Amino acid sequence: MRVNQIMSSPVIALDKDQPLANAIDLMKRNEISRLVALQEGKIVGVITEKDIARGLGSSAAYRLPPGRMHVSNVMSTNPITVAPDLMAKRAAEIMLDHDVSGLPVIEGEHLVGIVTKLDFAKVCSGYEEVYVGQVMQASPTTVSPGDRVIHARRLLLDEDLICLPVTEAGGLVGIVTVRNVAMKLAAFQEVVPDRYKSGRIRNLLVEDIMTQPATTARTDEKLSKVASLMLERRFSSLPVLNLEEELVGLLTKTQLTEVARERL
């Protein structure tokens, strides 16, 4: 199997000098988590929701809303690119080895698509013999509804996480993702007057931004079924419950990529 059999196409790109607000709007409207940044038609970077969460959560950004920031202020530069005929297994290896979640696909000098970790859900949807409990990430890091968003953001960035299950009294009550954090910070930066931004963001709580109820998977579900759901709903991660409805793990797009790497 080759990259062009699983990649996302067409890929959405924009100029690196576009306002960051334009990138955020494109992500929202197209329900995607990354864009390719161009300069004079050539690829110079990739901007992800995690880049936005990192950039807008910094103290410097409190004084500079998305309308005055540009894609180039937060994007990751010099992205790794791949050819459409590269083996999908090798693309998975590159993502895992370099800790990146997407690779622009180049044919000649033209951007023809992007292959992401979530694209490997297409591969995993064929693995009928694998169960979620066999491949999930066990004992995930969690937060509580009363934790501050700045704490959740720091955990997501420092531990390179995709999401944080939200628990209260031992039970799962929601989930907070990089997307939740990035989009809420963007909204605050736009509407809150400058002199109030720092205090308002510091006091923002996880319960104010979390997704609830969280869609979940179970340890005894087939990976093929859950991978298909993740692809259809564009979920980067799902909390995993055991037969007693206890939170025991996470299934993320990274686990899907690892499974595909081992089996392709």
Main beta-sheet strand count, sense and barrel state: 4 strands, mixed
Q: What shape does the CA trace take?
A: flat
**End-to-end C-alpha gap:** 8 Å
Round the Cα radius of gyration to an integer and report it.
19 Å
Can you characterise this structure?
The protein has 264 residues and is an alpha+beta fold. It folds into 2 domains: 116 residues, Roll (CBS-domain), CATH 3.10.580.10; 132 residues, CBS-domain (Roll). The chain is 38% helix and 22% strand. The strands form 4 sheets. It has a 4-stranded mixed beta sheet. The longest helix has 14 residues. The chain is flat, with a radius of gyration of 19 Å.
List strands and helices in order, with pairings:
Elements: E1 13-15, H1 20-30, E2 34-39, E3 42-48, H2 49-56, H3 71-74, E4 76-77, H4 88-98, E5 102-107, E6 110-116, H5 121-124, H6 132-135, E7 137-138, H7 149-158, E8 163-168, E9 171-177, H8 178-191, H9 194-202, H10 206-209, E10 217-218, H11 223-233, E11 237-241, E12 247-252, H12 253-263
Distinctive features:
single chain; 264 residues; alpha+beta; CBS-domain; 2 domains; four-stranded mixed beta sheet; 12 helices; flat
Brief summary:
By secondary structure, the chain is an alpha+beta fold. It contains twelve helices and twelve strands. Helix 2 crosses helix 8 and helix 4 crosses helix 12.
